[in-house]
Specification:
Chain B: Pfam families: ABC_tran (PF00005). Chain B: It comes from Bosea thiooxidans. The complex is a heterodimer of chains A (219) and B (257). With 219 residues, chain A is mainly alpha-helical. Chain A is 78% helix and 0% strand. In chain A, helix 2 crosses helix 5 and helix 2 packs antiparallel against helix 8. The longest helix of chain A is centred in the first third of the chain and has 33 residues. Chain B starts with 7 loop residues before the first strand and ends with a helix. The model of chain B has no long low-confidence stretch (mean pLDDT 94). Chain B is of the alpha/beta class and 257 residues long. Classes of the chains: A mainly alpha (219), B alpha/beta (257). At the A-B interface, helix 6 and helix 7 of A face helix 2, strand 8, helix 3 and helix 5 of B.
């Protein structure tokens, strides 16, 4: 093997990688925020006392979760405009990832919901809280605490999935790395540095979530 | 106020779980300040009766009238309709319930547990709710534990918080469902003492219990249930001293040790 390492070419474009990382993080944060909302709604729907709501949630999860994210992104960016809805590449990606993360988060939140003891819910009802008040003040906080560890897992997964945006030329980290790779032919260097950035970002996200976990009371 | 009218009047209450008749026509009256204990073997319908009064269970027949108001169902054109969530919630807030397994909100402190209903149901401002909560926690001997989470409290302490949580709402009637059954033996007495003291303060209590001595000490009346019916109802001296019903006599022999 006569490949010798020269990181200089990569460092010269390091700012591009950093801005790519920032774009990926930004897209992931917006998408997962929307996805969290979707996931919460659909998780509550999946345990609702109404069959129609449960079926709707089940349909959503099985439709979206069984599609590869890349296909979902391509649908949003290339197929949707044919029906008259035109989204730019950022909107398409955020929309697709939001939908996708919402489906995964439905299951995460549903597991959290099932873990809330029935007696605690009855206690809330017995002092006169309505169903909605019980869900907001009692069920949701307990569910979130219980779901936090697997929530962190899903968040990290969704951030890494921002690399799929490279497929529709969103200038995030993977896209920028590929450009540097093509321009400089420093294959190993480029992808090593890009990998390092992904790992560093994920470690920070994990640390933040651990911190959040510690702030919740243990029960 | 009409002195003749009981605070709680249960008439012909029937309840089915699938094909099993759990309550087969229960009639029971409670006056203000009454302390009524329900005894009977497990499966006799005691707990189900309490849960019907707190509207945690639906029932198929009969009426429950609390302070002159028929709760749970309204009748129209000879058909019964369960009230909606909002109305059921309002009616539930008139009764307090203390559960066998405490059921404290694990994400809230002792004070937070007591405050939740005060804030959300009675709409008290935060400071006022906190003051009421502290008063009640002091009342059950837990002033120093106000900012502890349930997981940091013993079973007896948790149950006393649950009692404070129920009573702080100023309910017309408090339902206690085997409140010492899940406790370690050495913690039973502190909870029974708390119940005794709220009874002495004039609360109206409907108690399901297996603590016969306690039922005898604290009750103004004791009710014996058997297979979904009330088969004997009288003052504790009569129930424990001179039971008329043979099943009751047998039940008391088996529980005395």
């Amino acid at each position: 093997m006569d490949y010798s390492l020269h990181f200089g070419a990569v460092w010269a474009s390091f700012d591009k990688l950093l801005s790519g990382l920032a774009i990926g993080l930004g897209l992931a944060v917006v998408a997962v925020a929307i996805g969290t909302l979707l996931g919460l709604l659909s998780a509550f729907a999946s345990v609702a006392p109404y069959r129609a709501l449960r079926s709707l949630a089940a349909l959503y999860v099985s439709l979206v979760r069984n599609l590869p994210l890349l296909v979902l992104v391509l649908l949003a960016y290339f197929a949707l405009p044919q029906t008259g809805i035109t989204l730019d590449k950022y909107q398409s990606f955020v929309g697709a990832l939001a939908l996708y993360s919402g489906a995964y988060l439905t299951e995460v939140f549903r597991a959290g919901l099932i873990s809330v003891p029935k007696g605690v819910i009855e206690a809330a009802r017995s002092i006169g809280l309505t169903r909605l008040q019980t869900n907001v003040s009692v069920v949701a906080p307990i569910m979130l605490r219980n779901a936090l560890p697997s929530l962190g897992n899903t968040f990290i997964g969704m951030f890494k999935d921002s690399s799929i945006a490279a497929a529709i030329a969103v200038p995030e980290l993977t896209f920028e790395a590929r450009k540097i790779n093509v321009d400089t032919f420093r294959v190993i260097e480029t992808w090593t540095v890009a990998s390092g950035l992904y790992i560093a970002a994920c470690v920070v996200i994990a640390m933040l979530l651990r911190g959040l976990e510690r702030r919740f009371p243990k029960f | 106020m009409d002195k003749q009218q009981p605070l709680l009047a249960i008439r012909g209450l029937t309840k089915r779980f699938g094909t099993v008749d759990v309550l087969k026509g229960v009639d029971l009256d409670l006056d203000r300040r009454d302390v009524v204990s329900i005894i009977g073997s497990s499966g006799s319908g005691k707990t189900t009766l309490l849960r019907c009064v707190n509207l945690l269970e639906e029932y198929q027949g009969g009426d429950i009238v609390l302070d002159g108001e028929t709760i749970g169902y309204r009748s129209a054109n000879g058909r019964r309709h369960r009230f909606g969530d909002r109305e059921l919630s309002r009616q539930r807030s008139m009764t307090g319930m203390v559960f066998q397994s405490f059921n404290l909100f694990p994400h809230l402190t002792a004070a937070g547990n007591v405050m939740l209903g005060l804030r959300k149901v009675l709409r008290l401002p935060k400071a006022e709710a906190r003051a009421v909560a502290e008063t009640w926690l002091t009342r059950v001997g837990l002033a120093a534990r106000a900012d502890h989470y349930p997981s940091q409290l013993s079973g007896g302490q948790q149950q006393r918080v649950a009692i404070a949580r129920a009573l702080a709402m100023n309910p017309k009637l408090v339902l206690l469902d085997e409140v010492t059954s899940a406790l370690d033996p050495e913690l039973v007495q502190e909870v029974l003492n708390t119940v005794k003291s709220i009874a002495d303060d004039g609360a109206t209590l409907l108690i399901v219990t297996h603590e016969m001595r306690f039922a005898r000490d604290v009750s103004s009346r004791v009710v014996f249930m058997e297979q979904g019916r009330i088969v004997e109802d009288g003052p504790p001296e009569q129930i424990f001293g001179a039971p008329k019903n043979q099943r009751l006599a047998a039940f008391l022999r088996n529980t005395r040790h």
